Amino acid sequence: MVINETGEIQALTLTKGNVDDRKPVPKLTEKLTGLLFGDKGYIKKELFAKLFDRGLKLVTKVKKDFTILINPQLGLSSDFERLAHSWNIEVKILGCYLRDVAVELFALKKALLKNEIDVFRFARRARKLRKRTRYYLKEIFHLPEVIGASRVAKNILKSERMMWKFLDDPENIPLTNNHAEQQIRHYVVYCKNSYFTQSKRGNAFLERIISLYLTWKQRGLNPFQNLLSIVSHTT
């Protein structure tokens, strides 16, 4: 459903439970331009780019469990982009700086993956970017009369340590948790379609089984045989 600022319905469609909520968005918004606000479930690189190319900018909040920026045009960059277009000139300048940091960070990661730079150089440069990011966010947070921007900066600073977790092991810890999100997507859809398990105990059981299954699968082990082994040793 798409509504305008006064709550009037602009477009509406119904889909099956296993259909990605983002799939009908391009068609629903084909006649719209400007800003489109949605929840965190609408974060997707391809969707953002497709809408942006025809003059519609998708604005979403940040997923709390995201390690860092998803893409120079997504995730935290949505917040950086809003800051860069603030009516307040100081916030606008700092927002542009933050946006540049995001672009540079992903350029560094790309260079690392292509072996154009080594891990030491990547980590050293990323730490400098971290200091710059923290400085810019603190500056925004302490600015008077910009409550909205200050709140955004404060929320990002709360997750600052988690955001830069990849610096602990740049070669093995990715910038994002996209891979993990993709791994559990099938089971999130399953839970929606099955109306969950109707109890906390059932939810806990399902979470553990899915976690074990995916771990075994990632390690190239047979999930059924491993689960059978556990059951046989506990009975």
From TrEMBL:
Residues 105-202 form the Transposase IS66 central domain. Pfam families: DDE_Tnp_1_3, DDE_Tnp_IS66. Residues 1-66 form the Transposase DDE domain. It comes from the Eukaryota. This is Transposase-like. The gene is WwAna1483.
